[in-house]
Write a structure and sequence with these properties.
Chain lengths: 143, 327, 335
């Protein structure tokens, strides 16, 4: 258990919904855990599942991908593709032994500042429970 | 029954056609139980062709492996077909390549070879160590007859077949322009037992299982190169700027390599098992790929390499796809 | 000198102030790995999958380390005495061949330091494998070239022939475990060596005319023929004990960076890919032609030795059974 260490969570947020929703949480002065490293992408459908692998290699303890609700994608269908891809990626990661608590996906719309707080708190709690993920890190292995 | 003469005649006729560039088949290897791919351009060369339980190579990979050189000015590109001999599993690779438009239907002449199962070379070498001379094999009444160079014959059964053959559901080519023999009965049913066995383990055990396997990987890229579905001109795993996976060989990069390749094969891997056969350090790659085959089958009801008209699952979606994993 | 087989573990312990490398299973493959307590050393198997070059020329090796904001570099040349136990004579010859490259125009400190620190204890081959052809390329199942000690399995023990000072020093550190050998032992070993040579079934064609003749075959159709089934993977090169090509890459983690070298293969298409996009070896035909020419012609031009020791790994492990002996016989015919 890692009560001392704060997890590093990398989050890929779609520009139109989730990023805006997170921003709303900020302007509404809603407090939520600061553990996220946010990467803004234009659409959740742009997120290459290998980004998750790369994030874990670079030291992420958890990953979150968040996009518009199905049917509301700014680009019509991007989030549908993302949903399919990540349903498969999630299974692959679990199968290889990456704790299921490290991978998360959510739909957060631009007006859901409150939901954003819940999502982030949940993701960070799960990552904390799962502990620091040092085994996959590139960190100077055999340097 | 395999009639080698008939097979060779068909090959000779195929190669003599004006619209066929060359034919890809199998011939006896240079020692022991080996078999090697044989490229036939002239009818006489077809004499060396064989089709036996030793023919594990998936020749469909050569359809996309052959380099396309720029055509010199004034010359027309050679649009003749390539004829390829494929077993059931191999034909699924051709179909999947057609589905993805990696090759065109008019560019390939498929010679179907209904197959009763190929042997696992490592099991053979274990059972008959020190076999130096070339061995021939034949399917005979549900068993396999091995003819050793000294003249003796041994008959072996299912226990020497590769794992994939024991549960084979597609022994007969799914798509073919001509078939070399009558159809063969399928062997088994898909239950993904090997995958289920690993799924039962704890997260920690799974991680140590795969880390142990990946740690011996030498990144020779044999698995990728032999795979009929890996045919990108520039593989993402070789790319620099951005570098997705570093070229240094260590457990982190090896894990990333295998995860990336497995994901890129999700819903595309036709389970020919070549990746595992060619791996010099015996990593159970099919165990990884089949997990995703299972997921894609269960989640999207899609089986790769079966229907030429099918649409691949990950380039599509349904509005009602399950999202029970989404927060 | 002689050592009884049941004293082997003690022998390893006695020489263990150095790192001892011996053939062991890593995953499913046999490789040369450091011996630790409880290691399962396998001297009975045929050759290791990964050749012993992996010890002096690791697959990934840090050449330089540097940090953002600092101007000094670290060049970590690894030092530390080591012993390799159970090296086959072909692989030892291969190391001598590769030494030429790493001390050619530049003395490579990373490689040469490890080589200087290394003592090679060879194991004569008494049961050559199907694809061994060491005797047709200047070697043999009991060749002493490159070795410091040669062991021969006599059944209940190993005969140890000390060949160099390094070997002498090594044996001295385990003096109490060794016995004096008698003439019968030496005779028995010689008989076994001779028998082993006769067990080799495959030969390369006469390699005499090949080095000078290969350049004449530049446009010969045989190259297209033999390379057509090649997958372009790296198995033959990575597992070849004389192959030594490497790539240099920079990697960063935060503010720390390193420059490392990793094994590379001339069979990969990117190997000769220029920044302009031009590739002088665009297809497998050119790359296969290059590989054979390098080993059997260019290397001979520069260093007077064929860069192939007949270990047979490329034949055993090529997924599509591309057989260098087959290629050489075609070359022989064409000449």
């Amino acid at each position: 258990m890692s009560e001392n260490l704060e997890p590093n969570v990398v989050a890929f947020l779609c520009n139109w919904c989730s990023y805006a929703g997170a921003d709303l949480a900020g302007t509404s002065r809603i407090e939520y855990p600061p553990n996220l490293n946010v990467i803004r992408v234009m659409c959740s459908g742009r997120v290459n599942p290998l980004f998750v692998v790369n994030a874990l290699q670079q030291g992420a303890d958890g990953v979150l991908i968040s996009g518009c609700h199905p049917g509301d994608c700014h680009y019509m269908e991007g989030n549908f593709y993302a949903r399919r891809r990540f349903s498969v990626m999630k299974e692959l990661l679990e199968y290889v032994g990456v704790d299921a608590r490290r991978f998360n996906m959510s739909w957060v719309s631009a007006s859901e500042g409150a939901k954003w707080k819940e999502v982030v708190s949940g993701v960070v709690d799960k990552a904390k429970e799962a502990g620091p993920f040092t085994e996959f890190r590139r960190n100077k292995i055999d340097w | 029954m395999i009639n080698l003469e008939k097979i060779r005649d068909i090959a000779k006729n195929t190669v003599s056609r004006d619209d066929i560039k060359y034919l890809i088949g199998w011939r006896q290897g240079t020692y022991g139980f080996r078999v090697s791919p044989h490229f036939v351009r002239k009818p006489e060369e077809a004499e060396e062709l064989i089709f036996s339980p030793l023919c594990s190579n998936n020749l469909a990979t050569y359809l996309t492996l052959a380099e396309k050189r720029p055509v010199p000015r004034g010359q027309q590109p050679d649009t003749r077909k390539v004829a390829v001999m494929v077993k059931g599993c191999d034909s699924r690779a051709v179909v999947q390549q057609l589905v993805e438009q990696g090759i065109e239907r008019e560019s390939v002449y498929i010679i179907g070879c209904p197959c009763e199962g190929v042997v696992d070379q490592s099991k053979l070498e274990e059972k008959y160590p020190g076999t130096f001379g070339q061995v021939e094999a034949r399917w005979e009444n549900g068993k396999i007859s091995l003819c050793f160079p000294e003249g003796k014959t041994e008959v072996v059964g299912e226990e020497l077949l590769t794992q994939k053959c024991l549960t084979c559901r597609y022994p007969n080519p799914v798509l073919a322009d001509i078939n070399l023999r009558e159809e063969v009965a399928a062997r088994g049913n898909e239950s993904f037992a090997d995958v289920a066995e690993l799924e039962k383990k704890s997260t920690k055990d799974k991680w140590s299982f795969w880390q142990d396997k990946f740690s011996s990987c030498i990144r020779c890229y044999s698995c990728r190169n032999v795979c009929p579905m890996c045919y990108c001109q520039e593989c993402i795993l070789d790319k620099l700027n951005p570098t997705w996976v570093n070229r240094s060989v260590n457990i982190s990069e090896n894990t990333a390599y295998h995860l990336a390749r497995a994901f890129h094969l999700a819903g595309r891997c036709i389970e020919c098992g070549e990746c595992e056969r060619v791996c010099p350090v015996n990593i159970p790659i099919t165990k990884l790929n089949r997990k995703l085959t299972k997921e894609v089958t269960e989640k999207f009801g899609f089986e790769p390499g079966v229907d030429v008209e099918a649409k691949p699952p990950l380039v599509g979606y349904r509005p009602d796809d399950k999202e029970n994993f989404i927060l | 000198m002689k050592i009884n087989k049941d004293k082997l573990a003690d022998f390893i312990a006695a020489i263990s102030e150095q790192t001892v490398y011996a053939p062991q299973k890593r995953g499913e493959a046999l490789v040369f790995a450091p011996v630790a307590k409880g290691s399962n050393v396998n001297l009975a198997a045929a050759n290791t999958t990964i050749p012993p070059k992996s010890v002096v020329f690791p697959q990934t090796e840090t050449l330089l380390r540097f940090e953002l904001g600092k101007t000094d570099l670290e060049a970590p040349v690894q030092e530390g005495k080591a012993v390799m136990l159970g090296v086959r004579p072909c692989d030892a010859r291969a190391m001598v061949i590769v030494d030429n490259v790493f001390s050619w125009d530049v003395d490579d400190p990373y490689y040469l330091q490890k080589r200087a620190d290394l003592t090679l204890v060879g194991l004569a081959c008494l049961e050559p494998c199907v694809n061994c052809f060491c005797s047709s390329v200047g070697g043999g199942p009991a060749s002493k070239e490159g070795l410091d000690v040669l062991m021969t399995d006599l059944g209940d023990g190993y005969l140890l022939e000390v060949l160099t000072e390094k070997g002498q020093t090594l044996c001295q550190s385990a003096e109490g475990l060794l016995e004096e050998s008698v003439k019968e032992d030496k005779d028995a070993a010689e008989k076994l060596h001779a028998a082993a040579v006769n067990k080799i079934t495959r030969q390369a064609p006469d390699t005499g005319p090949i080095p000078a003749g290969l350049p004449r075959l530049w446009e010969d159709p045989l190259w297209a023929e033999v390379s057509e089934s090649c997958l372009g993977c790296g198995i033959c090169t990575y597992l070849c004990p004389t192959c030594h090509c490497f790539d240099i890459q920079d990697e960063s983690e935060g503010c720390d960076s390193r420059r490392c070298r990793t094994w590379d293969s001339c069979m990969f298409p990117e190997y000769t890919l220029h920044a302009s996009g031009h590739n002088p070896r665009p297809t497998r035909r050119e790359r296969t032609r290059n590989r054979i020419n390098h080993k059997y012609s260019y290397f001979v031009d520069k260093f007077n030795v064929i860069a192939c020791v007949g270990c047979g790994r490329c034949i055993n492990l090529c997924p599509v059974n591309i057989d260098i002996l087959n290629i050489l016989s075609k070359v022989g015919e064409a000449l």
